[in-house]
Amino acid sequence: MTVLLSHRPVCRRVVRLPRFFAVVALAVCGAAPAWAQQWPARSVRIMHGFATGSAIDVMSRPLAAKLSEQLGQQFLVDARPGATGVIANELVAKASPDGYTVLAAPGSSLTSTPHIRKVPFDPLKDYAPVGLTTTFSFVMVAHPAVPAKTAGDLVALGRKRTDLSFGSTGVGSAFHLAGELFSQMAGMPLLHVPYRGGGTGAITDLIAGRVDLMFESPAVVTPYVRDGKLKAVGVTGTTRNPLLPDVPTIGESGLKGYALTGWHGMLLPAATPRPIVERLNSALNQALQSPDVKSLWAKMGMETPSTTPEQFAALVRSEFERYGKLVASLGLKAN
Questions:
Q1: Best label site of 22, 125, 138, 189, fewest CB within 10 Å?
Q2: Which domains, ranges and CATH numbers included, belong to the chain?
Q3: Residue 300: is its pLDDT beyond 50?
Q4: pLDDT tens digits, residue range 68-84?
Q5: What is the mean pLDDT of the chain?
Q6: Containing H/E element for 267?
């Protein structure tokens, strides 16, 4: 048997093989694309690492329903809360790359958390990015008893008081970094109180007055703001949120240059066949551009992007680098 090694695909390296082995080789080379094109042949799990009612959970369920309709198999949301999404991220990274385990993740769990704590996965190597599912600014909310209507008021208050606290979905989350960046730029102390399993525990304590502030997605906190249970004092993006048009951005109300935004996306385990990645990307973009999903996202103050796997992969890499620099500038240490 003679084999020629080159940089060409494995299926083209065979020069001379006994007839039996040649037939087997050709069958194997052709099997993967055919199998991938039949995907999905059974139900698919969309896994995320946060509690029921968290932003990623709220966004995942209508997308699961849409994907089920479009691809003819059931897409089931599987919440595995804990460790700022690390538990679910690891499970998907180590799952079989057959397209039946999908990760729905907020960008921070892949791009900022690994800079602050050791994680059992490589965000740049262990996944096949599929596409963005949303982009959004955060909202800074306060307990109604906090005597501040805007971020500027809060800065003035924080320079007089040293006991203000803010809750977050966990150490290394984008919401945590939003608070740390605010504290640094405002020159005021803020006690960070991380919560496990997503933001629901933090919101409960914020409503009860056990913490003073929180940074969260508009999809999660806007209903509480409308009910008067929480008070919106600032938006972290460069433009106001259409759901809260009277709430100024943090930058325009006192902290010029402050800006931080978030995103959610879907990923598959690395080595997932390219046809599966492309088919899921196509179905995802179709779901996002459907009138009912666009309307639902707009009601939650979120955008409906449309990206290729390559565009999403480039975003993950650039965000990973950006958050690495931010974590270093804030002086946060990895645990």
A1: 125
A2: 2-27 (no CATH), 44-135+264-330 (3.40.190.150), 139-235 (3.40.190.10)
A3: yes
A4: 999 999 999 999 988 88
A5: 88
A6: strand 261-269
